[in-house]
Amino acid sequence: MRGDGESAAGRPAPGLREGRRIARVDGDRRKVLVVLAPDAVDRLAPIYAGQGAMLQRLLTRRTPAELEVIRRFLEDLATQDERG
User: CB atoms < 10 A from the CB of 44, how many?
Assistant: First the structure.
């Protein structure tokens, strides 16, 4: 299973087969947004709890200015058009 919840074959990983809704993003059929139902979030939260705790520890070592740079980078990354 990959970290994005998909199996190597591109099928939903166990635990994500039910309790999810897939929506198209910006009219581009290649982009999708997977929205988890609350009960799916409850089932998956323990799996990712360690990663969340590690991320929190890492972020506490950054200054507000560094966090702002990280925020802007992630925002740019999330909104970047794949063609340019």
Answer: 16
Q: How many residues does the chain have?
A: 84
Flag whether 29 is in a domain: yes
Amino acid at 64: P
14 occurs within a structural domain:
no
pTM for the model: 0.52
Q: What is the mean pLDDT of the chain?
A: 78
Distance CA 34, CA 40 (A): 12
- Per the structure, how many domains does the chain have? 1
The answer to whether 6 and 13 are in contact (CB under 8 A) is: yes
Give residue for tokens 């999708």.
32
- Residue 63 lies in domain: 20-79
